[in-house]
Design a protein that fits this description.
With 107 residues, the protein is mainly alpha-helical. It contains six helices and no strands. The chain is elongated and about 50 Å long.
C-alpha cells in the first residue's frame, strides 16, 4: 500500500489479499491483485494524485468481480471447483474431472 493510505484502504487491501490467497493464488500474485484493485478504487474516488482514463471511466472493481464470479456460460472453472472441494475436504478430488467435481459439490 502507498504511504499515507487511509485505514479503510488498508483494510480493503488486506481483505482482497486474503481472499485471493483463499482462492489459491500465490502470495505475490495475491498482493499484486490487492494493490491493483485498491489503487484503482483510490483513483476512482480521487484519493490519488494521478489517475488513468480507464481507472476513472471503467466500471468499479466490485461490480466487475461480481460479473465474473463463475457465473459464465460454463459456470465455475475446474480450479475454482477443485479449490472448493479441497476446502470441504472431499476425498478423491484429485481424480475427478470438472463434471464429477460439480456433482460432488452439489452444483
Amino acid at each position: 500500500m502507498p504511504a499515507g493510505s487511509s485505514p479503510k484502504r488498508e483494510r480493503q487491501y488486506e481483505h482482497i489479499r486474503k481472499s485471493a490467497r483463499d482462492r489459491g493464488e500465490s502470495a505475490s500474485r495475491a498482493e499484486e491483485i490487492a494493490a491493483r484493485t485498491v489503487n484503482k478504487e483510490r483513483a476512482r474516488s480521487g484519493e490519488s494524485k494521478t489517475a488513468g482514463r480507464t481507472s476513472t471511466e471503467d466500471m468499479s472493481s466490485g461490480r466487475r468481480g461480481g460479473l465474473r464470479s463463475g457465473k459464465g456460460s460454463q459456470g465455475p472453472t475446474y480450479d475454482q471447483l477443485y479449490a472448493e472441494a479441497k476446502r470441504r475436504n472431499i476425498h478423491g478430488r484429485s481424480d475427478m474431472d470438472k463434471g464429477r467435481l460439480k456433482r460432488a459439490l452439489g452444483k
